[in-house]
Design goal:
By secondary structure, the chain is an alpha/beta fold. The chain has one domain: P-loop containing nucleotide triphosphate hydrolases (Rossmann fold), CATH 3.40.50.300. Helix content is 48%, strand content 17%. The chain contains 9 helices and 8 strands. The strands form 2 sheets. A 5-stranded parallel sheet has the order 2-6-1-7-8. Strand 3 and strand 4 form a beta hairpin. Helix 1 crosses helix 9, helix 2 crosses helix 5 and helix 4 runs parallel beside helix 8. The longest helix has 17 residues. It is globular and about 50 Å long. 37% of the residues are buried. Bound molecules: 2'-deoxycytidine-5'-monophosphate (DC). 2'-deoxycytidine-5'-monophosphate binds next to helix 2, helix 4 and helix 8.
């Protein structure tokens, strides 16, 4: 059976990982959260006081960073490890979210992350979400999805998600963070967020998680060789 690559790109907090995880599970593929890599690198920079505006410091730090995805039987998903430490949950913190888009503009950071992503995709049979996966990492992917949703809906969803972990978080903070990330992610010089010419658009403002899953799975089944 031929396995394919499915890429899911789009704006922050529009449900990319929810869809990617569900598709990977249904297809028995590996789900890869590329944003987790940028978040883990940001966490390292913050913890080690790396001045990321200084190329020399960045180059030195990148040599000291090792990233790995390890499948966790309990959570039934791959979790990211930074130099041997499971950082899957700590990287979701707003402190990291506030800096990650800036760190993700750095050439050396992107080169390191993209090299790992390409390596993981060699055997195909993966669903990877991010910002440049269909445009830069796997331009030859068999199915490319570009996700979008209304801003207000995205803010609300993100707020609910973060509020569960931290009741001190405010909706204004979330809104400002999403707007800032969208702006930086889509305006940066290297690999900005944009729809690949051959990507299919999935706007989930007014559809349920179930409906979006069925829509995307229909697209996957239409791809040659995909057996569900
Ligand atoms: O998907 P996420 O929100 O966890 O991503 C965190 C940040 O990482 C996002 O603001 C931009 C960056 N990112 C990127 O530049 N390229 C990717 N392929 C994935 C994420």
């Amino acid at each position: 059976m031929k396995k394919i690559i499915i890429t899911i790109d789009g704006w922050s907090s529009c449900g990319k990982s929810t869809l990617a995880k569900a598709m990977a599970k249904a297809l028995n593929y590996v789900y890869v959260d590329s944003g987790a890599m940028y978040r883990a690198i940001t966490l390292y920079f913050l913890r080690n006081h790396v001045d990321w505006t200084d190329k020399k410091e960045v180059n030195k730090a990148m040599k000291d960073i090792s990233l790995e995805f390890v499948f966790n039987e309990k959570s039934q998903q791959s979790e990211i490890y930074l130099n041997g430490e499971n950082v899957e949950y700590v990287i979701r913190d707003l402190v990291v979210a506030e800096k990650v888009s800036e760190v993700a503009t750095i050439k050396e950071v992107r080169e390191a992350a993209v090299a790992i992503q390409k390596e993981i995709g060699k055997g195909r049979g993966i669903v990877m979400d991010g910002r440049d996966i269909g445009t830069v990492v796997f331009p030859d992917a068999e199915l490319k999805i570009f996700m979008t949703a209304d801003n207000a809906v995205r803010v609300e969803r993100r707020f609910k998600e973060l509020y569960e972990k931290n009741p001190n978080v405010t909706i204004e903070e979330i809104k400002a963070n999403l707007e800032m990330r969208d702006y930086i992610d889509s305006h940066r010089e290297i690999s900005p967020l944009k729809k690949a010419d051959d990507a299919l658009v999935l706007d989930n403002t007014n559809i349920t998680e179930k409906e979006q899953f069925h829509k995307a799975m229909k697209w996957a089944k239409e791809r040659k060789g995909v057996v569900v």
